[in-house]
Specification:
Layout lengths: L11 E2 L9 H7 L9 H18 L5 E6 L2 H12 L5 E6 L2 H12 L3 E6 L8 H10 L4 E5 L1 E2 L4 E2 L2 H6 L7 E5 L18 E3 L12 E6 L1 H8 L12 H8 L12 H17 L1 H20 L4 E2 L9 E5 L6 H12 L1 E2 L1 E2 L9 E4 L7 H15 L1
Parallel strand pairs: 1-13, 3-4, 3-5, 5-8, 8-9
Antiparallel strand pairs: 2-10, 6-7, 9-10, 11-12, 12-15, 14-15
Helix pairs in contact: 1-9, 2-9, 9-10, 10-12, 11-12
The structure holds pyridoxal-5'-phosphate.
The site of pyridoxal-5'-phosphate has 14 residues, from helix 3.
């Protein structure tokens, strides 16, 4: 018997997730596995929680990674806060906002949607108009819309519900680490991200944070959280207090990876990381402009998620296939209405560096000439 590992290509990941993983993060993952209640495991967890609070800019006690990908973060925030019949307002300008609508609807929420044009940041005035008409238990928005390459104005939208009892739920799967996120200052009550984007950790963890107001709402639920695995009131007992209470077996090698990647990020400095993402976005945009590519987003595009319309005569999917086959580089295609029309390039975490950006530009040049 033999594995297929020897046949695998070493692919440069330049799609908007997963992003390249730093060698020291891969190395950390190979530290021998510890038991989930071992004192050394708890040491890693405590340190990682402090790092996450620093990166999310929050003092929330309930801050830890949910076991699972970004979608697990989405499920965890909604399933803990929503009870059947609750009024939920979701602001929609892309695929991942639409997924929120699906998740909340499945939980029996009364979901209203503020539909906003794709490819443009959300206009807070449109959200305010709906909030003026009706009271909502939850207002939900996506920070970085990966399908269209937009960073939404999360702070301005949060202002609309700041002094109310409406809870603010935010997805920053594709933003955290690459662009600023201020959970406390922006009044976010339920927050989640994903490991595999700007944090440059393999997929499998969803950093999450819940405010005291969110935890009080959960404590007052009339019904039990319908999903045992995602019940944060149970999971929190594993993350704080003594003795720690087993909930599910911790994916400790993923914790090693997250702990190392967050150390890399905090050692660089958050502001330096944000500036690097902007600079590398510019380098990519300038390089591809010389090859005739135009950005899909005209104004306010996210530095970490770049959508480009190819020049006339270049087919987006043929180009992607060439990049993968001839140059061992992955970029993504368009989602939804943009399928086949654009390429989506991640400038995320370890991918937001000169060497991978230049390698991609040169490969695109070779593919289209
Ligand atoms: N939310 C956003 C904004 C995303 O970009 C993604 C994935 O790309 C998700 C949620 C879902 O995350 P995952 O695919 O890790 O489950």
């Amino acid at each position: 018997m033999t594995t297929v590992f020897g046949e695998l290509d070493h692919v440069l990941l330049m799609a908007p997730g997963p992003s390249p993983v730093a060698p020291n993060v891969l190395k950390a993952m190979s530290i021998p596995t510890l038991g989930h209640l071992d004192p050394d495991c708890i040491k890693v967890m405590d340190a990682m929680q402090d790092q996450l609070r620093a990166v999310c800019k929050t003092k929330n006690a309930v801050t830890f990674p949910i076991s699972g990908t970004g979608s697990a973060g989405m499920e965890a925030t909604f399933v803990n806060l929503v009870e059947r019949g609750d009024d939920v307002l979701i602001v929609n300008n892309g695929v991942f906002c639409s997924r929120m609508v699906e998740v909340a609807t499945r939980l029996g929420a009364q979901v209203d949607v503020v539909e906003c044009p794709w490819g443009q940041p959300i206009d807070p005035a449109a959200v305010k108009a709906q909030l003026d008409k009706k009271h909502y238990k939850i207002l939900a928005a996506v920070h970085a819309e990966t399908s269209t390459g937009i960073n939404n104005p999360i702070a301005a939208i949060g202002e609309l519900v700041k002094n109310s009892d409406t809870l603010y739920l935010v997805d920053s799967v594709a933003g955290l680490g690459g662009v600023d996120m201020r959970v406390d200052e922006w009044g976010i009550d339920a927050f989640y991200s994903g490991s595999q984007k700007c944090l440059s950790v393999p997929p499998g963890l969803a950093p999450a944070s819940f405010s005291d107001a969110a935890m009080e709402t959960i404590a007052k639920r009339k019904t039990k959280v319908p999903n045992w695995y995602m019940d944060v009131s149970l999971i929190r007992k594993y993350w704080e207090g003594s003795p720690r209470v087993y909930h599910h077996t911790a994916p400790i090698n993923m914790y090693y990876a997250m702990h190392q990647a967050l150390d890399n990020l905090l050692t660089e400095g958050l502001d330096a990381s944000f500036a690097r993402h902007v600079a590398m976005h510019q380098r990519l945009t300038d390089g591809l402009a010389k090859l005739g590519f135009t950005p899909y987003v005209k104004e306010g595009g996210a530095p970490q998620i770049n959508l480009f319309l190819p020049p006339a005569g270049v087919d987006a999917n043929t180009l992607r296939a060439c990049l993968r086959k001839e140059h061992k580089i992955e970029v993504a295609g368009g989602l939804g209405d943009l399928a086949g029309k654009v390429i989506r390039v991640g400038v995320m975490g370890e991918g937001a560096r000169e060497e991978p950006i230049d390698r991609l530009i040169n490969a695109i040049k070779a593919c289209i000439n």
